[in-house]
Amino acid sequence: MTFTPFTFPATVTPLETGLTVVHHHMPATPVVVADVWVDAGAALEPVEWMGMAHFLEHMVFKGTQRLRPGMFDYAIETQGGFSNAATSHDYAHFYMALAAEALPTALPDLAELVLQAAIPDAEFGRERQVVLEEIRQAQDDPDWIAFQALSEQVFPDHAYGRPVLGTEEVLLQRSPAEMRRFHQTHYQPANMTVVVTGGIALEPTLDLVRQTFRSFPAPVASPARQTGQIQPWWGVRRQVLRVPRLEQARLLMAWVGPGVDDLNAACGMDILATLLAEGRSARLVRELREERQWVLDIGGSFSLQRDCSLFMLQAWLEPDRVDAVEALICDRLSTLALQPVSPAELERAQRLLINDFAFSTETPGQLAGLYGYYDVVASAADSYSYPTRIQAHTPTSITTLAKSFLSPNAYASTILLPTAER
Amino acid sequence: MTSSPPVDRPLLQRRVLNNGLVVIVLENPVADIVSARLLVKAGTGHEARSQAGLFSLMSSLLTKGTRHLSSLEIAEQVESIGASLGSDASADYSLVSLKTVSADFAPMLALAAEIIRYPSFAEAELSLEQRLTLQGIRSMQEQPFTVAYNALRAAMYGKHPYGLPGIGTEETVTQLTRDDLVEAHQAYFRPDHCVMVIAGRITTEVAIALADQNFGDWAGPAHPLPPLDYPAVPTAATHTTIAQETNQSVVIVGYQTPSVKDAAYAPLKLISTYLGSGLSSRLFVELREKRGLAYDVSAFYPTRLGLSQFVGHMGTAPDNQTIALEGLRSEIERLGKVGLTAAELQASKNKLLGQYALGKQTNAQLGQLLGWYEVLGLGVEFDAVFQDMIRAVSEDMIQTVAQQYLKDPFTVVLGPHL
């Protein structure tokens, strides 16, 4: 196949304050996205502050000394835009999409919210109720329960094993003053990347960001983070959970993969996930769903986080098939570590991933998310090295990765079964 | 957004082939991608009650075998060039869509024509999909919102086909046969009943030529389709309770509201925006931000050819379910008494029109929207007409429509204390 390397179309500008600006001008669109990424995810929490990073993300929208709760949302949305935010273990980010000409009036407010969050006492208790509702809703979702249980199993001594949402018990003990400390500690320029994509040129963007992202909170110390360690293990860690109202069993199998210090290998893990479980001609989908018909569905995922990556296979199936499917997957992984994949099979996975990359870099919003995420876990420019790294893999390199990382003798599995019949 | 800088909007062309197939082309060279979709003017809303799930099953089988190709061969052709090919059935239409890099477009369109025109509906694939569908129907029981919403839909629509989930029911899906699929395919998949949209880095001439080459000799039946006749819906509102040991209660209210072709459509879209869209929406501010009752609280009013519904919903702690139901109802029904102020109406218009623009950023999104307007019988011009209709809505229209439709809701509460 012909392959045209992708060149990084954005610029990365470090400002004097330590803040990083990533910008990509897309002249054909009237839309602009501004996305503020902060190295202030749940991995920075002490254990007794579990859930703080996410709860803070909610409280940021409760305003500042000047902006009353809801004023920002109202202003953005009545101009035809929208804003939202998300938190994971490695980051919190706050974004808005709107007409390009509205950016100069909207960005100062977004900056003020993020940098000068007031965390009003009166709003704290009420918003905590909202977060507790979010937790209750998650606890009614079997797939959330399964992933959470698996994470605890894979990362017993690391923050990645703790829920980003926290728990009711811990959240009820937290105070607005503690949250302000967490905010002042981590919402500092060196921990922040502002991504601007869409219909605005570089110079006005940099001017605007310089003017608006300047009043950072005075730094204070928070209780020490308890990120912890990721320990490799030998053998199979297996747990079975009984879950009410479950119609299908779940089988989740996970391996810890290479981290951001080896992006070539990480991209190879994406290829492995694809050739095992992406699309009807993928090995496990074809055999387990189409031919043997042992699963309702099966999927693979590879997620890159800062401290390590997670390779996961997930099947939805009848309870009495779980053991057979798990054994078969182990057997097929052994094969993968011994017999090189055919060039055609490898090329199929490579094309799927490279085209998928092209399909998910169309809009300012997609690009802002991509740049910001990479800037938090690695560097923004690494985002566009992805197709080239995918293309560089060979049948031999894939076999080596399968052998090194996808051992059938060392993995974690979480199984959800329906509560026994009453 | 009158002050927006001039931008190159995609060039739109609409042609009708000799067999009646409407072809819409959007030239937009910005990305090296072409997306295409074929929309069929028939969906789950065309199903007899005894055949619920027919269109959903048909759409999943389209990609699973043709006169020349097996299921696996189709998958390999698509996946080996890294394209995407999907099919879906909605209430008012069915859809086959594909996306490729520009260089791969011609062979993928030929493959799409093959699966659209000559599906085999092989018995082995049928029984596999039937089994997977039945498991999918059972899986819906795991999601509390879905259980509650299905109950609302059943109560509001009675024997109307919108009353059942598109995937069908255990009883009906078990009964569906190959003959049913063949018959429905012959009846509804016909060129004069379809719209093809091709969008991306391709010229109009090439796109039309490819459409003609692959679909130009597609002949439909001579007789026209019988008109669609919906059964009457229940008129007396009901309250349904569902006991489940969940952590959160789900509270839903539904009001019967008219179709996209009714004069109330634009005012109701604005009311839906005002009440349920975004972080500044009335339900979000009053029930979540001020009272902390919910994480998820929203409203929606889907665009439908037949009778639609205006739905408000939230998830809340079981102890709060009664005040949540009262809160949802009073916020929605309040509009019949007080309407919207001029400022609220203008803010809602800006919000709706801005989000509408943000919803058609990619070729695929814009192509989907225009193709959908075509199969609904509104034409591509509805893209502009709709925005004009929104701008023309007055405060009086909001209040009149709210008084007429936003009263006596069907309600559902699902939770542990019932």
Name the beta content range of chain B: 15-25%
Radius of gyration of chain A: 23 Å
Largest beta-sheet characterization of chain B: 6 strands, mixed
The CATH topology of the largest domain in chain A is what? Cytochrome Bc1 Complex, Chain A, domain 1
Q: What is the strand tally of chain B?
A: 11
Low-confidence stretches of chain B: 1-7
Span between termini of chain B: 49 Å
Briefly note the structural class of the backbone of chain A.
Answer: alpha+beta
The top-level CATH class of the largest domain in chain A is Alpha Beta
Instruction: Give the termini separation of chain A.
Output: 58 Å
Shape of chain B: globular
Helix proportion of residues of chain A, in percent? 40-55%
Q: Would you identify the CATH H-level superfamily of the largest domain in chain B?
A: Metalloenzyme, LuxS/M16 peptidase-like
Instruction: Count up the helices of chain A.
Output: 15
Just name the CATH architecture of the largest domain in chain A.
2-Layer Sandwich
Radius of gyration of chain B: 23 Å
- Protein structure class of chain B: alpha+beta
Number of helices of chain B: 15
State the major sheet of chain A. Answer: 6 strands, mixed
The neighbouring-strand order within the major sheet of chain A is 1-2-6-3-5-4
Walk me through this protein's architecture.
The complex is a heterodimer of chains A (422) and B (418). Chain A has helices at residues 52-60, 71-78, 103-115, 121-139, 142-154, 168-171, 176-186, 202-212, 263-277, 283-291, 322-338, 343-359, 364-377, 386-391, 395-405; strands at 11-14, 20-25, 31-38, 82-87, 92-99, 192-198, 235-243, 249-257, 295-304, 309-317, 410-418. In chain A, the strands form two sheets. In chain A, strands 1-2-6-3-5-4 form a six-stranded mixed sheet, with helices on both faces. Chain A has a five-stranded mixed sheet with strand order 7-11-8-10-9, sandwiched between helices. Chain A is built from 15 helices and eleven strands. The longest helix of chain A has 19 residues, at 121-139. Chain A is of the alpha+beta class and 422 residues long. Chain A is globular and about 60 Å long. Chain B is α+β, with helices and mostly antiparallel strands and 418 residues long. In chain B, the strands form two sheets. A six-stranded mixed sheet of chain B has the order 1-2-6-3-5-4, sandwiched between helices. In chain B, helix 9 crosses helix 12 (342-358). Chain B is globular. Chain B starts with 10 loop residues before the first strand and ends with a strand. Mean pLDDT of chain B is 95; it is low at 1-7. Classes of the chains: A alpha+beta (422), B alpha+beta (418). The interface between A and B is large, with 73 and 69 residues.
